[in-house]
Amino acid sequence: MSAVVVEKPALREGAFGNAQALSCRECGHQVELGPHYACPECFGPLEIAYEFGTVTREQIEAGPRNIWRYKALLPVPDDIESSPNTEPGFTRLLKADNLAAELGITNLWVKDDSTNPTNSFKDRVVACALSAARELGAKVFACPSTGNLANAVAAAGARAGIKTVVFIPSNLEQPKQVNSAVFTESLVAVNGNYDDVNKLASEIAGEEEGWAFVNVNVRPFYAEGSKTLGYEIAEQLGWRLPDQIVIPVASGSQLTKVHKAFQELIKLGLVEDKPYKVFGAQAEGCSPVSVAYKAGVDAIRPVKPDTIAKSLAIGNPADGIYVLDICKQTGGAVEDVTDDEIRAGIVQLARTEGIFTETAGGTTVAVLKKLVETGQLDPTLETVAINTGHGLKTLDAVSGSVGPAATIDPTYAAFAATGLA
Amino acid sequence: MSAVVVEKPALREGAFGNAQALSCRECGHQVELGPHYACPECFGPLEIAYEFGTVTREQIEAGPRNIWRYKALLPVPDDIESSPNTEPGFTRLLKADNLAAELGITNLWVKDDSTNPTNSFKDRVVACALSAARELGAKVFACPSTGNLANAVAAAGARAGIKTVVFIPSNLEQPKQVNSAVFTESLVAVNGNYDDVNKLASEIAGEEEGWAFVNVNVRPFYAEGSKTLGYEIAEQLGWRLPDQIVIPVASGSQLTKVHKAFQELIKLGLVEDKPYKVFGAQAEGCSPVSVAYKAGVDAIRPVKPDTIAKSLAIGNPADGIYVLDICKQTGGAVEDVTDDEIRAGIVQLARTEGIFTETAGGTTVAVLKKLVETGQLDPTLETVAINTGHGLKTLDAVSGSVGPAATIDPTYAAFAATGLA
């Protein structure tokens, strides 16, 4: 299953903090912590099981201003801050009164992950994967990716001084290639689409010794990084859960992990136990979870993506069924929007709150709008929307729809004639 | 001088916090706080004079995780956090051991302002200008700019709900136009170069009532925002000044304000009084201050810029003589590097620390390298280098020099043949 070979005796004490085992989400079977991602019994997804002990608000608040303030809740060692990493997280939670007014919501916040080190939430998950790779003795830190993940892996690997190899489709736009190539001399362009790149990555993970593919063989560790979004939102609200939260859905991992984070905070007594509704946001051109939700079925039918929201374009989302389950169980919903609505969402967030989001964030804003209009989201309750990445990475999405209001000669008379004064 | 007309009685109590007056840097003449930027006696630059009273570390540490934790040291009201703003600052101070090792330095830090809301240090200064504009009753928030400043003004204005008008040269690259146009419907493209745009802005500032041009008539307030870089560095080092600091020089304002910040911290007893050396970094293609430093003269001879470091391309830097003075007085220096060295600096910082900087940051890294090689900077002393902005904004600078190591078919055999395994 994986060739990151470190015998257990080689693992140092506390390599994974309070994590105790890998536990199958489907059958509950437990395996030892290591580079495994599928249950040997039922092939279900493995996730991290912990014994947290006591964790206090004071302990967290005394920590660094990045995700490591939550290290006791992550599969990382207690000395994680001392290992070079990009120090992601603790991004802005902005009160979004202007957007709220336009949408008819009373109390709205935007959690802005576009200000992370490589400008997306991927820095969080990659930082956790990097820790696992280091503790497991990996020699190479790698991923298949079309964008945000490639940036995050290449940057984190550079800073950690570990060799990175990043695989991308060869037809990827040049700016996106540069944004990874600047960090690594081992960017590999693959003739094929993302599925081909992904398949090649799995093959290499099986053949090569000591390779940690962040989203393949160390995925259970990687995925835990998304929990920090949930922790931060609660802490930044003053150790309180919101009533409603809207989260974009690609593989669905982020949504399930934010829910997991909220549940952990409740169990640890760090926030009051209260109901909250989780909403999933998809693009119409890749909406397998939304389609299943609306049809009232439990199974996700894979689709071939066709949307400008490339970072959400996963046609067969691994955690789709868990997203369905969480959204239904909490009283939320899953909704989707068109590419035009996504473009409008990007501009609306920029014009109201000064945040330039990528297409995934445009999807979230547009879905939020649609949820209010269709009465699925209660506009009187406190709501948080997550912005997962930066608009500079998906400039093409809006470059046709925004631009100068006027082009003038450099004279006051020419300016006065524009009517902009 | 300015048409932001608010009679003094209309200013609310405490509108500018501990700021007491505008004081001429040249002759010391004081004028009332308002939209003024040049001394009525001698035309010298005006800057903010304060009476701080007592400011403690505890007071600052209890503040928000953005520049407003230093509000007692800025010309802003005590309730500044409650007015919508982009909440910039408190960016990463990263220990840069990999870069240090390559450069032969023992103890190096990078202050990374590329993770600010619109990805440059300009968010700091614009936030202070926005506060002044609001308190002065301005109706329009404006600037002439070719890049970072335009982004910051358009975003901050959108979030504050104040009308923004941003002036750019009409031949500006489309991505840079989009990165401002997404925030404002009043982007004005001007047929001409930056000097033409700037001249037009001054003309409009004189003609129109209630316009706050951030870098023209509210410049003294605006410039104070750069002090927060100095405060943060000291606080993040554990309330301690570094021995050496390297700062890029465009107008020179940032360098003088970081020095001012260090001096204020010493006077307030917030850090120990100790010597520190300040170094200025310029691009050879626009190096009027470096040329004067090397020639040992006090006067700056203006130049016509010709460099890829566009955000440093100010041929007649307003604060150049103060930069010279500070660098000489503290035992530092001013140095410049070629465009090729700048490109190499960008890649070196990315590959060693996972930070993708713009050309200004590449300049700083390259100058740091040159200062060590020429013996001007002591490699055994603690050193901080400032990264002012994000590489995504100046992609062209490196797009020709980095890229995939290999392009392969999607098979393991093809990968194995690359030698990257």
From TrEMBL, chains A, B:
Q: Which cofactor does it need?
A: pyridoxal 5'-phosphate
Record bears the keyword Lyase: yes
The organism's superkingdom is given as Bacteria
Matching InterPro entries? Ser/Thr_Dehydratase, Thr_synthase-like, TrpB-like_PALP, TrpB-like_PALP_sf
For this UniProt record, the keywords arranged alphabetically read as follows: Lyase, Pyridoxal phosphate
Q: What is its EC number?
A: 4.2.3.1
According to the entry, every stretch annotated as the Tryptophan synthase beta chain-like PALP domain falls at 88-389
Query: In Gene Ontology terms, what is one molecular function of this protein?
Result: threonine synthase activity
Entry similarity comment:
Belongs to the threonine synthase family.
**What's the name of the protein?**
Threonine synthase
